[in-house]
Amino acid sequence: MKKAAVWIIALCLVLCFAGSAFAGDAKTIKGLITTRTSDVLSLKTADGNQDVTLTDSTKVQSPKGLGLRKQQMSWASLIPGLKVSVKGALDAGGKFIAEEITFSKDDLQTASMIQAGLTPTEQKVDANKQSIGENKENIDTNKQQIDENQQAVNKRFDDLTDFDVKKEAVVYFVSGKSSLAAADKKALTDLAAEATKLTGYIIEVKGFADSTGNAAMNQTLSKDRAFAVVNFLMQDCSVPPRHIVSPGAMGISNPVASNETATGRKENRRVEVKVMVNKGLSPAGN
Q1: So which residues are the signal peptide here (predicted)?
Q2: Distance between CA atoms of 99 and 57, rounded to whole angstroms?
């Protein structure tokens, strides 16, 4: 029995040392997401900027309960402004390959509000607004701040200026709804089919709402509509999640028509979808 116990201890020590050897190149990087493409996540860390390479096997997770378990999260959660912890290792070419990306739901909520141009206080105030008139007055009073916030939201899409737009689609919605119509599903299916033929493509998604209702509700609607499109592209069109840029909840910003008419409001209840390819990968003249 003593001899067996000795062998078991020895085997455990060997396995521990072996595990340490194999994990020698593994490390964890913590930072703030600044930009993201289909294959690369750029982080701002305490030591400077760090590019992280994404693969289809990269896990995106958030601690659940006491943190002992982890919940799988959508790739669309990887938005600029989100604090993340990335576990991975360097490959033979010196690229840092992400094996697991973890973030807290509180940090995701904060990043989402920054992206949407909202602060927690503004959300509570907007949620208590009872009339469109009050909403308009609030928007006018805080126009400068809203404009600044909107510029921040647009900036993460402006960072994609090195990309050529190859295909576009606009999806429209019924007032107060975020479900996709059959015709829109067909348009998205055709768009996805064209996109998957391209090398290094990414799909940009922006959701919008008309001015009916309060600002907080419209912000949520624009987000839900964007995610409805993202989910359809991933689940029904088999678009890999890492090829989709996090959806933008644009609220009532950038209306394409007047919100004073039913026809105009219908045009503003939309999601804009663009298929883009990096200019360095795009053949000249295409």
Answers
A1: 1-23
A2: 7
Tokens 């309060």 correspond to 214
Whether the predicted model's global pTM rises above the 0.85 cut: no
Element (H, E) at 112: helix 105-116
pLDDT in tens, 145-161: 545 545 554 554 454 45
| Boundaries of every domain in the chain | 2-107, 117-278
Cα separations in angstroms, 231 against 92, 101, 105: 34, 20, 20
Pick the CATH number of 2-107 from 2.60.40.2100, 3.30.379.10, 2.30.110.10, 2.40.50.140: 2.40.50.140
CATH topology of domain 117-278: 60s Ribosomal Protein L30; Chain: A; (3.30.1330)
What is the sign, positive or negative, of the torsion defined by CA atoms of 122, 102, 54, 34? Answer: positive
Tell me the pLDDT tens digit for each residue of 211-221: 998 888 998 89
Alpha-carbon distances, residue 181 vs 89, 131, 174 (angstroms): 43, 30, 9
Q: Which amino acid is at 178?
A: S
* Cα(157)–Cα(140) distance, integer angstroms: 25
| Cα–Cα separations (whole angstroms), residue 239 to 105, 190, 275 | 25, 12, 12
The CA-atom distances, in angstroms, between 224 and each of 6, 125, 167, 229 are: 60, 21, 23, 9
